[in-house]
Amino acid sequence: MVYVGIPKGQADQEEEVLKTIQDGDSDELTIKRFTESREKPGALWHIYAAKDTEKIREFLKKVAEEQGQENPVDHDPIHDQSWYLDRSLRKRLHQEYGVQGWAIVQFLGDVVFIPAGAPHQARTGGHVHNLYSCIKVAEDFVSPEHVKHCFWLTQEFRYLSHTHTNHEDKLQVKNVIYHAVKDAVGILKANESSLSRP
């Protein structure tokens, strides 16, 4: 989080931000960072374990059906980012499916790392609930430990409708692997003579 803009003279907005942080199930230490240390909160995240993805997907489909919404085959309630799990839905998800996530408030200067495949909260088309005007820098990467999971995500994206924003292969896993292997082979060839000596 490289910038957080807090308007001057709007004490009511500060109270609203505090209520949002509290309703977001943030811990006491996080609340103290805002109330006592006067740090600048930029965004509220809810992050879930990748292993709970199917349970969350099933829960969102169930809630959609209860509200009379369709669940088309070529859409996905997680990748569509059409749901915001408010406090009552998060509580219900925990009670009915045993799924509980982590609430993270990102303050100015904080970095939030989202593990591969971890569903994270979406609100109004984004991945995060902004508390104040803010600017963040995001970087996606594929680690060797998570290549298998990234392939799995790429397969999920293929089943989305052709007009879906996530239909394309954003992760480019095959290209990442190709270039990683190419670089590794290049380094080995460059050092071939030193490697063959006893």
UniProtKB/TrEMBL annotation:
SUPFAM superfamilies assigned: Clavaminate synthase-like
GO MF annotation, one: chromatin DNA binding
Record note on cofactor: Binds 1 Fe(2+) ion per subunit.
GO biological process entries: demethylation; methylation; regulation of transcription by RNA polymerase II
Gene3D superfamilies: Cupin
Localization annotation: Cytoplasm; Nucleus
EC numbers: 1.14.11.65
GO cellular component: chromatin; cytoplasm; histone deacetylase complex
InterPro entries: JmjC_dom, LSDs-like
Principal localisation: cytoplasm
Primary enzyme class: oxidoreductase
Keyword terms of this UniProt record: Cytoplasm, Iron, Metal-binding, Methyltransferase, Nucleus, Transferase
PROSITE patterns for the chain: JMJC
Family the entry assigns: Belongs to the JHDM2 histone demethylase family.
Job description of the protein: Histone demethylase that specifically demethylates 'Lys-9' of histone H3, thereby playing a central role in histone code.
Protein name: Lysine-specific demethylase
Encoding gene per record: Kdm3a
